[in-house]
Write a structure and sequence with these properties.
2 copies of one chain form a homodimer. Chain A has about 325 residues and is an alpha/beta fold. Chain A contains 10 helices and 13 strands. Chain A has a 5-stranded mixed beta sheet. The first copy, chain A, has a 5-stranded mixed beta sheet with strand order 11-10-9-12-13, with helices on both faces. In chain A, strands 5-6-7 form a 3-stranded antiparallel beta sheet, covered by helices on one side. In chain A, a hairpin with a 6-residue loop joins strand 6 and strand 7.
Chain lengths: ~325, ~325
């Protein structure tokens, strides 16, 4: 279903013989963790490797870590290097999939115009594809998650920040300069109207993102109102709300209402029937329930279905594996080199 | 560029011989006027006909008026009936282009599930296509207006209400239940959060639509502050603002800011580089200038170009003519009947 957008000029720089290239590797470059999966060409995962990226922001450090994971996965499975037909990696930022360049990452990582595809191809010696991590999560849900067989849906990844992977007519919509789905900066009733600089969370993220939810909690916190500490994280605050704490419920309801407004707006524009809520914050039932309640009150005009991601933290990695399988398929033509 | 979405099963119910079918007719069913244009198969307009639709809301009355216009155009040009290869009509509402049904019109007209294509084919005896009028306006701008050669853009029709025609990768995006682009109901900072019923203007329309602008003016109006009457229309209020009246400027600035927020949100989602402002209200320079100013203050992240429609009130009609030309082309296969 989601194949056409992956067609790019067939690479001729990697020799493959018919016995090599039985496996692929998917990579998820997250803000806190780097995760790799070795899979066969049906997409079945055979091995996993992960490493914390805390303090490892530089692209060369990340590429070196990926090479380490690549080698470790092969060693563990007792497989030769030439068994890997392709690698695909998801990056946490705006990604030019044609050129293989990460144009800009979120305020957490600070990358600008990083030629990630070329860096990885040089380091690993196999064809590489890259894409935005939220796009890959959407792809994961489309292929092995809750959006199987759905031609139009939006994956909303809500963790520290917020991003959307938009699928229209079975294809990812990336936008003319690759920045479609940057919904963390949306303006809805209740969000700040102040100018937002690059490098700071967007107005929607200030209320619905993990960091924003912590700020909302901190600004309302009082020892008198809750036993939960002032520096609690979003999912702890959500659990606390489900357990009945009024202060936590206030924060959840604000986040849920604001998220519902954003979903309502996206739905008016795109008429998408399904929204998949992903990311540790997005998947929490407290947020989904609060958003569903407000959405149902906005009337019959827009009533998309809100469903939690089936793949959870694996959505990006599953999408990366699928993209790697596609990349391998596109590189099957006889090498001319 | 915008051809693929018009493919539908070839009609076999209309006989055409090779000498017949040299012309097409485009129809624009507006809230206040019905307009028809006779054109040759290159799309060049050869004759025009229009009639007020005030008081004529019923679909059968509208179809009868269209037949009257169809006959009048042929009589005026001294052409036989079989010279018309196809007709295309734009309707002011949500339109199922596959089934040829107007699902629902705006609160002004009150149509529900009107089989307009079948009604027109029965009345005129030629193949007919129908689409939403704002989609046709987008098509008009893409083919002979300011969006020529642009694969991704949004046409915003702002008259009494507001609608968007969304072009992605050179194709109209209509949505899974044909209601993509219903942006008059968008929620942005400053809009009402109250539940909106069908049959009433949306939150965005309450501030940016022609009717909404009149309400904003009326609620602020005082004889002391302006010589313009309390029942002025939107474009008069805009002219008054350009002439320096502070009260009118307040209304324009509110509308411009709210419109800028809506464009900003759409742009974050779709990454569209061009917005074409159409409709009598949307084309007024006072509104465009006010929106541009706010948009530029929202920072570098989203800076789409805002351009007034080149075709003005002709955009829908030009789009209808183009759709009729496409419809004629799709019906060129030898008739089996």
């Amino acid at each position: 279903m989601l194949t056409r957008q992956f067609e790019r000029p067939i690479s001729t720089s990697f020799k493959q013989d018919k016995h090599s290239g039985c496996h692929v590797i998917g990579v998820d470059i997250g803000g806190t963790n780097l995760r790799l999966a070795l899979a066969d060409k049906s997409g079945a995962i055979l091995g996993r490797w992960s490493r914390s990226t805390t303090g490892a922001r530089n692209e060369n450090v990340i590429v070196e870590l990926i090479r380490e994971g690549f080698n470790a996965l092969l060693a563990e499975a007792s497989l030769p290097r030439n068994t890997v037909a392709a690698v695909a990696a998801g990056a946490p930022g705006i990604t030019d999939t044609d050129q293989g360049i990460v144009v800009a990452t979120s305020y957490l990582m600070g990358w600008r115009d990083v030629p990630l595809r070329a860096l990885l191809e040089a380091a690993l010696g196999v064809p590489v594809s890259i894409d935005n991590d939220v796009n890959l999560a959407a792809l994961g849900e489309a292929h092995s998650g809750v959006a199987q067989g759905v031609d139009d849906f939006v994956f909303l990844g809500i963790g520290t920040g917020i991003g959307a992977g938009i699928v229209i007519n079975g294809q990812l919509h990336r936008g003319c300069i690759w920045s479609a789905g940057e919904v963390g900066y949306m303006l809805v009733p209740g969000t700040s109207e102040a100018l937002v600089d690059r490098g700071t969370p967007g107005p929607l993220e200030e209320i619905v993102g993990g960091q924003g939810i912590r700020f909302q909690w901190q600004s309302r916190w009082s020892e008198r109102l809750t036993p939960l500490p002032q520096d609690a994280i979003a999912t702890e605050i959500f659990d606390h709300a489900l357990a009945g704490n009024a202060l936590a419920q206030e924060v959840v309801q604000l986040a849920g209402r604001t998220l519902a407004y954003a979903i309502y707006n996206i739905s008016l524009i795109l008429n998408s029937p399904l929204f998949v809520l992903g990311g540790t914050v997005g998947m929490h039932p407290a947020l989904g329930d609060a958003a569903r309640k407000v959405l149902s009150q906005l009337g019959e005009r827009v009533q998309p279905k809100l469903v939690a991601s089936a793949l959870g933290p694996d959505a990006q990695l599953r999408g990366a594996v699928f993209l790697a399988v596609e990349t391998a398929r596109n590189n099957l033509a006889p090498a001319r080199g």
